[in-house]
Amino acid sequence: MIGIKSPREIELMRKAGEITGETLKYLATKVKPGITTKELDKLAEDFVLKKGATPECKGFEGFPASICISVNDEVVHGIPGPRKLKEGDIVKLDLVANYKGYQGDSAITVPVGKIDDKKKYLIEHTEKALYKGLEAIHDGCHVGDIGYAIQKYAEEHNLGVVRELVGHGIGTQMHEDPDVPNYGARHTGPVLKEGMVIAVEPMLNLGTRRVYLLDDGWTIITADGKPSAHFEHTVLVTKDGYEILTRR
Asked: What is the pTM (predicted TM-score) of this model?
């Protein structure tokens, strides 16, 4: 069942989203060659706590860190550790902040120093694909309309659309109904109504769409070793469109 949020719940989610967006904006300024992913994780946790929220990922189904940090061919759910970022890497930062029981979920892909043109292309068009998906949102739209818009844009730009991982509803739980795939057909899937909140998050690959899970039980990487990018916003469905709750 897809819940419709009350005005009070929406205000709390706006605050959670604001904290999430501010944290990612701050972390992006700290991404540089030589910093470890564990150092970025500590910066994220400290920032979120300072804002009066908590990092929801920490301990979620056993995840050991405050933020998912995935580098290059790692698609999502990378575990922070001693790895040092290098010039030319791209790094995905995926954060969920819990404010008074409500969640804000967002992700960005950030270049480490100077990156090559292929990685620039991947980042640019993954972010644009997110906004293509968001443009399909309004009261009465179908979830499939979002996935169709993302898939169409991605495939027009020769990017692989990961299918095993999807966006989702969000509220008091990180993952609520409905699933929001990054592929699909128009006028299919659940109907979205004003007051619903979802997280839309295209994960696009420079090569094949196929991915697999590493032995750590969390990190998902591309099957061909080519880079992947990830962007995500938590959005409120409105009568005429949508409101981004995790603006940066």
From this structure: 0.97
